[in-house]
């Protein structure tokens, strides 16, 4: 919610990490970028901006204006928009560009855009001179609540998504709420899938507000959208601080993702947005949660899973392609990197706002979950 | 020194790091590998070994024997020996190999070899699934005392050495002293350059032993070589624990390296070993140390720099190619990634066993250091 004139803005959430690596997630206009760089101890004169061909034309001028006045010398590179830019080839291209410019270890890399740009630029920052200071400037809901927070960076590989990458934390995140006003509707809704996920796994109060304010969210009411995004980001901040390297509870953020990644693989990357695949995955995961709690589930889900299901349904994911078989989807889950040596691991809900990990899940429960996600 | 039968081996040095990432540097036979994996909490069944075409034929059987008996399933890849394997292309090849085998986040990557293999396999481990457990099995002096300890991983780039990489710490280091017996003489001497470096910057007692025992070292007396390597490794362990990301005193390990990297660039990588370039670089750095302490230096260096110089001279570095000009060398230093925004930074000695950083070094002192390194 924009602070009334004269009031103090709410304090930034801080990702608490060992080794002096704490960092803040600011919800603030891009115009404040130079101040935040200074306060984070970053100094010029050169800054590299990595963006994409959609976001660059919208916000690169604002970044240049914010930095130019403070004496920064801004160099920018725009990669093609879309998942295909998360490749070893594009990563190598960013490195070539940066190294030919002549960076040093103090040169910040600013990732201006959504999840693709954040993951690509983050991996480049992680691997240039063994690590340049990274700043995320997320411009989508999904990036502001999820991908810009927590240090997962990387690119895709022929054998699967996100298989090449590094854990590399930014110096800070600056999320400008105004950038969400230019998001295409489909991207907004895709981002809300991650908001719903964060609410379902960890924040029952946020579930209530989503149920109440859904229409205003879709209308992009600034106050409602701003508060929801901030609260959903806070869930991620807390989880990352508790488990930086995903050896424990951080895996709860994969709610809907084991199913969802299989959908993305089998539907072909790009046919669905990430959020649409996650929404489908959450339908399956909510059903699985009900199955594990109550045994065989037929027809309407029992409480409290009906409530979780209804919230996921508001995301209105497209139907799963009938040509993709449940077996193919289940096979695709086997390649997910979140598997352990002992087999697939699923995140299931115990209640609205509370999740846990489940291993050794029966095959028929998985098959029933796929059928449910199809609307059968 | 090999422990007498029935005695307790000396405790392993431990690199103390925040976030539960402490790790041990064991000096122990490769035959003990399965036990160390188990004690580090790593479990099979699959382990990936990355080695090179020189070291593989010598020690891969020993690794297979050590692991096979403990139920591990070993997959191995040997890259061509030599600096050219530190490339983005080879890194990408290691990733393709590992991902097609179907690794999971528990699959350890074992780097069996010298610095090239450690840097390449380490960077692959750092970037596979955002980080697989890494174990260094260094088989050269330079790797046992320096490159396998401290988490620097990476490959070279068209614009310079080690410009692409990550800080990524191993789970443990297992250095088998017996592997040093198969090192070519030139590699042994090259490794001793790093031993001399560690002694000069941080361990005056080790300087004394090097002066006394040099001939036994060159003869590979197991007890003498073993103790010297262990003590030189301990210097690295201490420095890394104090400054993991090279924001402070870790830079002292670059003694001789700002000059040395320039020599490598201008002589052409491969013409000199890394240790030979560092030995030449240390001659220049010792002279620079004397200049900064005493003003213009002509003829024999004043104490205590004469003593440091004599120890470096035992490394018998080849002469610097007369076709390479001092100006070209000085230019080459400008591209070194250890430079700061404020200019080149040199490590100089205050005394034998004590070093510091020097910035804003006069150009004529650098030129005089190059002339000294040439023997002029």
TrEMBL record, chains A, B:
Residues 77-189 form the 3-dehydroquinate synthase N-terminal domain. Its cofactor is NAD(+); Co(2+); Zn(2+). InterPro entries: Dehydroquinate_synthase, DHQ_synth_AroB, DHQ_synth_fam, DHQS/DOIS_N, DHQS_C. NAD(+) binds at residues 115-119, 139-140, 152, 161, 179-182. It comes from Rubrivirga litoralis. It catalyses: 7-phospho-2-dehydro-3-deoxy-D-arabino-heptonate = 3-dehydroquinate + phosphate. Its EC number is 4.2.3.4. NCBIfam families: aroB. Zn(2+) binds at residues 194, 257, 274. This is 3-dehydroquinate synthase. It is found in: Cytoplasm. Belongs to the sugar phosphate cyclases superfamily. Dehydroquinate synthase family.
């Amino acid at each position: 919610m924009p602070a009334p004139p004269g009031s103090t803005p709410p304090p930034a959430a801080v990702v608490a990490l060992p080794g002096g690596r704490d960092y803040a997630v600011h919800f603030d206009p891009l115009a404040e970028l130079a101040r935040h760089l200074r306060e984070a101890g970053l100094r010029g004169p050169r800054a590299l901006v990595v963006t994409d061909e959609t976001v660059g034309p919208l916000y690169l001028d604002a970044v240049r204006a914010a930095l130019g006045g403070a004496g920064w010398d801004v160099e920018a590179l725009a990669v093609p928009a879309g998942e295909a830019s998360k490749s070893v080839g594009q990563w190598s291209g960013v490195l070539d560009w940066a190294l030919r410019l002549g960076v040093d270890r103090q040169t910040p890399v600013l990732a201006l855009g959504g999840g693709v740009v954040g993951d690509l630029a983050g991996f480049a920052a992680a691997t240039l001179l063994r690590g340049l200071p990274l700043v995320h400037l997320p411009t989508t809901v999904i990036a502001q609540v999820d991908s810009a927070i927590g240090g997962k960076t990387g690119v895709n590989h022929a054998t699967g998504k996100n298989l090449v990458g590094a854990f590399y934390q930014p110096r800070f995140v600056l999320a400008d709420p105004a950038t969400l006003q230019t998001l295409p509707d489909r991207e907004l809704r895709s981002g809300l899938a991650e908001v719903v996920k964060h609410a379902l796994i960890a924040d029952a109060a946020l579930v209530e507000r989503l149920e109440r304010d859904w229409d205003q969210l879709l209308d992009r009411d600034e106050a409602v959208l701003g508060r929801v995004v901030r609260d959903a980001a806070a869930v991620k901040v807390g989880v990352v601080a508790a488990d930086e390297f995903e050896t424990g509870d951080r895996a709860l953020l994969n709610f809907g993702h084991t199913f969802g990644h299989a959908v993305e693989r089998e539907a072909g990357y790009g046919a669905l947005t990430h959020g649409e695949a996650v929404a489908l995955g959450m339908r399956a995961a909510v059903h699985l949660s009900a199955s594990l709690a109550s045994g065989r589930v037929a027809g309407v889900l029992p409480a409290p899973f009906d409530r979780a299901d209804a919230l996921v349904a508001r995301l209105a994911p497209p139907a799963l392609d009938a040509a993709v078989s449940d077996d193919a989807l289940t096979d695709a889950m086997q390649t997910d990197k979140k598997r352990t040596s002992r087999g697939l691991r699923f995140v299931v809900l115990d209640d609205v706002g509370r999740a846990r990990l489940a291993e050794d899940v029966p095959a028929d429960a998985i098959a029933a979950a796929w059928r449910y996600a199809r609307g059968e």
